[in-house]
Amino acid sequence: MSSYTAREGNAPDQVLIVTGGVGAGHDGAAAELRARLERAGLHVEVRDLLDAVPPFCRLLLRKGYTGSVRWAPALFERVFQDIERGTWVHGVVEWMCRVAQRRVGRWAEGFPVVVSTYPLASQTLGELRRGGRLHATVVTYLTDPAVHRLWVHPDVDHHVTVTEATAAMGTREFGVPMRAVGGLVSPTFEQEQTAAQRIATRRAVGLPVDGRVALLVAGSEGMGDVVPTVDAIVASGVADVLVLCGRNDRLRRQLSGRDRVVALGWRSDVAALMAASDVLVHNAGGLSLTEALTAGLPAVTYRPIPAHGRANAALLARAGLVPWPQNGEELSAAIVTQCEAGRQDRQVVLHHQDAGQLVRSLLNRVEAGSVLSSGEQTSEHPSGRTSVIVGAGHSSQAFPDTAAAV
User: How far, in Å, CA of 147 to CA of 154, rounded?
Assistant: First the structure.
C-alpha cells in the first residue's frame, strides 16, 4: 500500500469514519467508535455516505428502505436477492458508489485510517483503493450478523464483525479474512444493575415489579410486524411486553393502553430497560440485538423483516445464539426457555481486542511503516498472533496484536 500524506498542521493520529444515515445502527456504531477513539486522545471525523450521493439517491436510500419494508416487503426482499446475485440492481448500487467516490476521496485526504460502518461506504472506499486514489488503511465494521455481498470488498484491508459466527460466515462464503471484535455499543450495556435499580426502572415506566418482561424492539422506525408480535405474546400470557417504538409515534399510540403492554417512543436509557427485562424480542438483528448480546440479555427473533433481517435471523439461529420461532406457540415456548436460561455469556461479544483498540493498533503500524504490500493477506495462529500469506490477490493488512494497542 502507498503511504498517506498527513494534513498540514494535524497530527497523524486521526481517523475518518464513514457511516450511512439509514436507520440508527450504522450511525450508532460510528458514534460509539468515535467516542472510544476520542477518549484515547485521537482526532476523529464522521461523515455520512448519503451526503456524497445526489439528492434523489439520498432520498431513495433513506426513504426507500423504510418505505419498502413497511409497504412493499416482497419488493425489498427481491431487491436484496437481486443485489446478492449481481443483477442490474447491483449495477445501480455500483453506479451510486462510483458517484460517491469523488467526495469520499476528498473526505479521506490526510487520514491514515478510514473506517466504514455502512455497506455502500465499504464499496466506495474499496473502489477508491483499487483505483489507487486512496492510500489510507481501510476497515469495514459489519453491523449485521449475516454477511451480505455489499459488506465485502477485496480491496478493503480489514473486515471486522461483532461475533465469531459472522466472521466465520464471511471467511467461508466470501473468502475474505474476518475477525470478531465485539459490539460497538455504549459501556453502560456491560454494567451490572442491582435488583433495586431494575425494580425502580420497571416502576418508572409502568411495568409490574414481578413477572417476566419481554422487551420488543423494531429498529429506530418501529418497522415490521410489531402489533401481531405483541398480540401473540400477550395472548400466550408468558410475559408483559415493553415495546420500544422508536420514532414511530403512530405505532406507540396504537399500542398504548393495551393490557399488559407498555409502549414507549425513542429512549436514551435502553441499557436500563434491558437490565429491567428478561428477554429481547427483535425482528432485524441490528443495534438492539448487539446491545442485548453485550448486556447478556437472552433474545428471540420473531417475524424478521425481509432481506437482511431474515438473513440475520438465519445466521443467529444456525450459530445457536438466538432462536427463531416460526409461530406464536413456538414464540411463547422460546420466551419461556430463554427467560429460564437467564443472563447469557457475554464473551460472545466481549473480546480481548475491540474495534477501538484495533484502529489504534493500525495507527501505530502506519506510523511505524509496518504496512503490507498489495497482494498480501493475513492469517491468525491459534495463539492470536498473525502471519502473512502472499498472493491472495488483494491488499490486506495483518491484524495487529492486542499489545500494540495498549
Answer: 14
The string over 193-207, giving b where at least 16 C-beta atoms fall within 10 Å of a residue's C-beta and e elsewhere, is beeeebeebbeebeb
Is residue 41 one of the residues assigned to a domain?
Answer: yes
Q: What residues contact 187, with CB distance under 8 A and at least 6 apart?
A: none
Whole-model pTM? 0.88
Closest CA to 258 of 289, 290, 233, 295: 233
- Contact residues for 219 (Cβ-Cβ < 8 A; gap 6+): 23, 24, 25, 246, 283, 284, 286, 288, 305
Q: Are residues 166 and 222 in the same domain?
A: no
User: Do residues 162 and 280 both lie within one domain?
Assistant: no
Residue 84 lies in a domain: yes
Place of cell 413456538: 330
Domain around 273: 191-346
| Residues facing residue 114 across a β-bridge | 16, 138
Residue 9 counted as domain residue: no
Q: Strand pairing of 376-380 and 386-390?
A: antiparallel
Q: How far apart are CA 278 and CA 382, in angstroms?
A: 36
Instruction: For residues 58 and 236, give the distance between their C-alpha atoms in angstroms, rounded to a whole number.
Output: 42
Secondary element (H or E) of residue 16: strand 14-19
How does pLDDT run across 277-331, given as a tens digit for each residue?
Answer: 999 999 999 999 999 999 999 999 999 999 999 999 999 999 999 999 999 999 9
